[in-house]
């Protein structure tokens, strides 16, 4: 597996995490959770998943940009 394949996989996983986060948000909005602690934990996990997806996407973009820069040097 070369570095471009790694960047593609990272981008794929980022997209999947974003999809999961969106589904979690929809389920959270439609749920009737009465326990405050449980709601806080689910909200935290949703936000953390968004953060991870963003970081993976940034890493993928950085790798791709670095490869493009190296090719042009």
Q: What's a quick, concise take on this entry?
A:
Helix content is 89%, strand content 0%. The protein is built from two helices and no strands.
Total beta strand runs: 0
SSE succession: HH
Low-confidence stretches at least 5 residues in length (pLDDT < 50)?
Answer: none
Spatial separation of the terminal alpha carbons: 23 Å
Largest sheet: none
CA gyration radius, whole angstroms: 17 Å
SSE class? mainly alpha
Shape verdict: rod-shaped
State mean pLDDT (0 to 100 scale): 84
How are the secondary structure elements laid out?
Elements: H1 3-30, H2 36-72
Helix pairs in contact: 1-2
What does this structure look like?
- The structure is a single chain.
- This protein has helices spanning 3-30, 36-72.
- The protein is mainly α and 73 residues long.
Keywords:
about 70 residues; mainly alpha; 2 helices; about 90% helix; rod-shaped
């Amino acid at each position: 597996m070369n570095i471009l394949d790694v960047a593609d996989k990272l981008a794929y996983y980022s997209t999947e995490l974003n999809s999961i986060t969106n589904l979690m948000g929809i389920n959270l909005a439609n749920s009737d959770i009465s326990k405050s602690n449980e709601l806080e934990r689910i909200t935290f996990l949703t936000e953390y998943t968004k953060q991870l997806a963003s970081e993976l996407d940034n890493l993928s973009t950085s790798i791709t940009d670095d490869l493009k820069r190296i090719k042009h040097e």
